[in-house]
């Protein structure tokens, strides 16, 4: 799979104003390949078709395997890593909750959709397939994927109906999560610290970045900050900076004809040999070979 750089807060459009949703079909991850740490304003439903993926969602670790689903609420920080010996395959449905609203303000909007849109009610993180309602939700998510893949006449209505059916099933079985204000406030502070640090890295990756400076931004001592950062992103600060720089280098490979050594320095590496070493560590290929593969 060609890696795609995603800012911590995704700002790319998922779909269009008339159809504010997009389904990323057949997303392949090789062993230990990662889904980059990010969040977005849309809800995301993920269905694993093959293999297993270890997700970290809102600081909660969860492993989902073939035939299982997770639901990620809007604005939630999440990342993941494939656990499969071979390639894993998953599909991601990303949509704006307003897509499910109607032009007429009715009881359905007031009772079921508004609490989700306003964040007063949350989708459950993991769908329990051992329960009948879990199987029904998973089935509707699969219907959505089928409608999108085939795109027969009326597919948009079928897809929207399946997403609404998911809400209906969860409501019927009292499976939604209600916000715990105290818990959300505490967790929200930690997330804000992580977001501030990663945004700083994204804005300053071309320059020298010291762990001590990141710790100062987080108002923590360096040792505690390193543990805190890894616990919530799955990476040490140095690993995160290096990987982000490599992702930016790949963007240059795709769009620029510069020499690799020049790109190395442009993205913030100070040593070309170290850049090659880290690139091969993260991408399994040298920069030169990887560039040929994606051209």
Automatic annotation (TrEMBL):
Keywords, in A-Z order: DNA-binding, Transcription, Transcription regulation
Question: Does the UniProt entry include the keyword Transcription?
Answer: yes
Q: Which CDD domains match?
A: cupin_RmlC-like
**InterPro entries under this entry?**
Cupin_2, Homeodomain-like_sf, HTH-like, HTH_AraC, RmlC-like_jellyroll
SMART domains, per the entry: HTH_ARAC
Report the domain of life of the source organism: Bacteria
Q: Any idea where the HTH araC/xylS-type domain is?
A: 195-293
Q: Name one GO molecular function term.
A: DNA-binding transcription factor activity
Q: What is this protein called?
A: AraC-type DNA-binding protein
């Amino acid at each position: 799979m060609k890696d795609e750089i995603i800012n911590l807060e995704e700002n790319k459009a998922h779909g269009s104003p008339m159809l504010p949703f997009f389904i990323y079909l057949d997303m392949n991850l090789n062993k230990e390949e990662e889904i980059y740490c990010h969040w977005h304003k849309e809800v995301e439903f993920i269905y694993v078709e093959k293999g297993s993926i270890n997700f970290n969602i809102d600081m909660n670790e969860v492993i989902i395997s073939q035939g299982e689903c997770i639901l990620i609420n809007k604005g939630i920080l999440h990342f993941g890593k494939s656990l499969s010996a071979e390639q894993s395959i998953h599909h991601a449905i990303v949509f704006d909750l307003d897509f499910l609203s109607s032009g007429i303000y009715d009881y359905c909007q007031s009772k079921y959709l508004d609490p989700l849109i306003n964040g007063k009610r949350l989708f459950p993180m993991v769908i329990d397939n051992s329960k009948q309602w879990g199987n029904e939700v998973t089935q509707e998510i699969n219907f959505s994927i089928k409608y999108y893949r085939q795109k027969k006449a009326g597919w948009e209505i079928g897809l929207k109906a399946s997403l609404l059916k998911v809400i209906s099933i969860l409501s019927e079985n009292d499976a939604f999560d209600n916000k715990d204000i105290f818990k959300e406030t505490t967790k929200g502070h930690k997330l804000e610290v992580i977001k501030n640090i990663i945004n700083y890295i994204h804005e300053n990756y071309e320059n020298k970045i010291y762990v001590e400076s990141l710790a100062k931004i987080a108002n923590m001592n360096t040792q505690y900050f390193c543990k805190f950062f890894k616990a919530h992103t799955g990476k040490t600060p140095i690993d995160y900076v290096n990987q982000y720089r490599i992702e930016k280098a790949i963007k240059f490979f795709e769009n620029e004809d510069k020499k690799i050594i020049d790109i190395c320095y442009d993205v913030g590496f100070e040593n070309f040999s170290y850049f090659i070493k880290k690139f091969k560590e993260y991408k399994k290929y040298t920069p030169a070979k990887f560039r040929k593969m994606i051209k």
